[in-house]
């Protein structure tokens, strides 16, 4: 839930991460027994210009093979790939 909210916050700011994968989701365990998931590695992040939804056409496909979101290839922004990453932690 924390990682999903973090990505949603980035998107509200007009920032795309471009390399979300299990290795870039850090899990922190508190001494009280709680856990927290945090997004890391912002090296490929980009701020989208106003009225743009993608950097792909301008800069090519960025990310790690096997973890690139399907919407990068088919332009369907309704596709959600983050679920696959969350499943790796189960």
Overview of this protein structure:
- This protein has 90 residues and is an alpha+beta fold.
- The chain has one domain (2-87): Transferase(Phosphotransferase) domain 1 (Transferase(Phosphotransferase), domain 1, Orthogonal Bundle), CATH 1.10.510.10.
- Helices cover 28% and strands 16% of the residues.
- It contains four helices and four strands; from the N terminus they run αββββααα.
- The chain has helices at 2-12, 56-59, 71-74, 82-87; strands at 15-16, 25-29, 35-39, 46-47.
- A two-stranded antiparallel sheet has the order 1-4. A two-stranded antiparallel ribbon has the order 2-3.
- The chain is globular, with a radius of gyration of 14 Å.
- The model has no long low-confidence stretch (mean pLDDT 75).
- InterPro entries: IRE1/2-like, Kinase-like_dom_sf, Prot_kinase_dom, Ser/Thr_kinase_AS.
- This is Serine/threonine-protein kinase/endoribonuclease IRE1.
- It comes from Geodia barretti.
- Residues 1-90 form the Protein kinase domain.
- Pfam families: Pkinase (PF00069).
Question: In brief, what are we looking at here?
Answer:
The protein is an alpha+beta fold and 90 residues long. It has a single domain, classed as Transferase(Phosphotransferase), domain 1.
């Amino acid at each position: 839930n924390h990682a999903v909210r973090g990505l949603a916050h980035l998107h509200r700011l007009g920032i795309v991460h471009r390399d979300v994968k299990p290795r870039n989701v850090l899990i922190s365990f508190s001494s009280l027994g709680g856990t927290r998931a945090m997004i890391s590695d912002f090296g490929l992040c980009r701020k989208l210009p106003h009225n743009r939804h993608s950097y792909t056409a301008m800069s090519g496909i960025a990310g790690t093979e096997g973890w690139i979101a399907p919407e990068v290839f088919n332009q369907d922004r309704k596709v959600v790939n983050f679920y696959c990453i969350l499943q790796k932690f189960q």
